[in-house]
């Protein structure tokens, strides 16, 4: 055996690390480091409970690969996370494994990405439980652990004795990390690499091509009050804007997400400002993008110092109308017919473009969206009339894409006339295609 193999026994291997909701999940980043030090590529899968103990963002950063923390969420490239993990892993290591997870696995319940990947894989599975001493000793837990080893052929790295999170002492502490890594090396043995084709392994996260950049993104649909209980709203779910915020964050940007009404959870790892109405959004944009005053000093790559952001991606669906004179102060009564008089709202993006100065001289890249119905013909007009750098046009009436759906299809047009078509694809894929164009424009400014 060459010294290199001894030092890095997992070189070229993909180890999928399943993390479940034990207090010992705080050790997961250390397990990732130890596996990587042994030469492995690592992908993390988390149960929903595990995300309360350790951040997917931390694991994504440490592994350099997309994390699967939601069984029903697709990977950024649209593939099914637990199947990709199951098919490409040289080994699946579940550490720490909770009592709950042992029971779910023993029963064959595919309710989280970790059990689902284990059920779908032909790779060896190594399980390192961690729990309170009484939980570990319980006959139910013992019988579940036996089923995993005796019936499924999994390797069990038994918990050790010591001080537990509960404050008591006993057997239940996660085994030493070195012991766990040794068990993984042994379980893989001399088996051939299961998936040498990098494209079939879980996706690596895009390089940090936006690192050091400040990107402001608006998302969701604005709402205008009619009276104290009623609003005028639109059908935007905020998914595309949120996918943009997550993708920009993952590519290293410092992200400010200005969120109106959204139907999905807001992302972690980005700065968030809520702005529900057109007026609130206008105020948030004014504070995020103060008036352009000076060119940044020569050699400064980022425009953030001068204008507050390197790019503004205006993905929010902003109300075009609001009640004249504002909302009624009292709830409107159901007395016959109600006539609402509406006025047009200001065009916020055009306002930002005016404030920051003409495209030829401003340093902030401005990206607008054009929600089209039955074609994508207004995009070029919008690009010119608002003096934008990019317009993303999508047909919101096309089946399966646009508002409220998980997928989108878009044509991205630049001021130079260059177009990119993307989709139908998950909104995260569309987000990355938009950010590719933004990153290219920013790189060209240098
Ligand atoms: C602070 C805290 C620590 C916990 N630590 C453990 C643990 O070490 N082991 C365990 O089996 N359960 C532990 N639990 C309970 C699990 O989080 C709970 O059973 C959860 O449903 C596990 O879900 P999962 O197995 O799908 O991740 C803990 C709960 C709390 C609130």
Brief characterization of the structure:
With 446 residues, the chain is α/β, with parallel strands linked by helices. The chain is built from 15 helices and 19 strands.
Summarize the helices and strands and which ones pair or pack:
Elements: H1 3-7, E1 14-19, H2 28-37, E2 41-46, H3 56-63, H4 81-88, E3 91-97, H5 99-106, H6 113-120, E4 125-129, H7 133-137, H8 139-151, E5 155-156, E6 160-163, E7 169-173, H9 177-188, E8 214-219, E9 224-225, E10 231-232, H10 239-250, E11 254-259, E12 271-274, H11 278-288, H12 304-307, E13 311-314, E14 321-323, E15 342-344, H13 348-356, E16 365-372, H14 379-386, E17 390-395, E18 407-414, E19 419-426, H15 427-445
Helix pairs in contact: 2-3, 2-9, 4-6, 5-8, 10-15
The overall strand count is 19
> Approximately how much beta-strand content do the residues carry?
15-25%
| Helix content estimate | 25-40%
Instruction: Give the rounded overall mean pLDDT.
Output: 90
What does the radius of gyration come to?
26 Å
- Ligands present: flavin mononucleotide
What name goes with the CATH superfamily of the largest domain?
CoaB-like
Largest sheet: 8 strands, mixed
CATH topology of the largest domain, which one? Rossmann fold
Give the total of domains.
Answer: 2
Distance between the termini: 50 Å
Order of strands, widest sheet: 12-11-8-13-16-17-18-19
Features:
19 strands; elongated; 5-stranded parallel beta sheet; binds flavin mononucleotide; Rossmann fold; alpha/beta; 446 residues; 8-stranded mixed beta sheet
